Amino acid sequence: MENMDEQVNSENLAEMEIVQFPGKIISINSEKKADAILPELLKEKAVGIDTETRPSFKKGVTHHVALVQIATWNTCYLFRVCRMHDIDAVKQILESPHILKIGLSLKNDFIGLRRKWPVEPHNYIDLQQYVAAFGIEEKSLQKIYALLFGKRISKTKQLSNWEVPRLTVSQRNYAAIDAWACLHIYKALLRKPLPKPYQSLLPITYRRGSEKLFIQK
C-alpha cells in the first residue's frame, strides 16, 4: 500500500492471504506449569498480549476470562486461566515494570481479568492509541495488520468456546496470532528489523514523513 490514507475494506481484506503463526504454541493448564514457564518469560523485554473469553449469547450472562495469551517472537504461551485458581505467574508478567506489554483494546482485557483476579498491569502500550500517531485510523487488529503487512488475520474462531477441555488446533493458532501480531505491529512501526526468520514476513520498508508514516514497496 502506498500510504496510510488507504483504508482496508471487506473486499480487499477478503483477497488477502491469511497469516500463519510461525512459531511454537505452548498451552499451560496448571499453576505448576505456569510457574515453570515464568523464569523464561521474565527475561523478555517486550511481549504481545491478549485475552479470550467464552462468548455469551444470552442477555445479562457473562463469563470470566478463559485464556491469556503472552507472545514472544518465537513462542506464544496460552495460559488457560479458566482451569487455574491462582494466576500469579500471569500477574507477574502483567505487573512487571521491566517487560513492555503490547496489546489492543487492553482496557477491556484488564477489566475482564479484574472481575476475578486483582491484577494491576504496568508498562503497557495499547495499539489503538499508538498507531494513531503514525496516521493509522483503523481500530481493529485485523485491519491494522492488513494495512501494514497486506495479510489477513482470520477471525473464524473468535466466538468459539474458550472453556472447552482441549483447545482445537484452529483455536490455538487464532489465539497465538492475536497476541503475536501486536508485537509484530509495534516492532514494525518502531522501524526495528524483524528477527530472523521473520524478516520474510515484512515485504515493505518504512520511512518517516513530516507527519505520517509512509510505506513503500
Description:
There is one protein chain. The protein has helices spanning 10-14, 31-41, 88-95, 106-114, 127-130, 141-149, 169-189; strands at 17-18, 24-28, 46-53, 65-71, 75-79, 100-103, 124-126, 151-152, 205-208, 213-216. The strands form 3 sheets. It has a 6-stranded mixed beta sheet, sandwiched between helices. It has a two-stranded parallel sheet with strand order 1-8. Strands 9-10 form a two-stranded antiparallel ribbon. The model is unreliable at 1-5 and 202-217 (pLDDT under 50). The termini are close together. It contains 7 helices and 10 strands. A hairpin with a 4-residue loop joins strand 9 and strand 10 (213-216). It has 217 residues and is α/β, with parallel strands linked by helices.
Q: Segments where pLDDT lies below 50 for 5+ residues?
A: 1-5, 202-217
State the separation between the terminal residues, measured CA to CA: 8 Å
Residues in helix, %: 25-40%
Rg is: 17 Å
DSSP summary: helix tally = 7
Shape category = globular
Q: Per DSSP, what share of the residues sits in E-state strands of 2 or more residues?
A: 15-25%
> Major beta sheet, specifics?
6 strands, mixed
Produce a short descriptive summary.
This protein has 217 residues and is an alpha/beta fold. Helix content is 31%, strand content 20%.
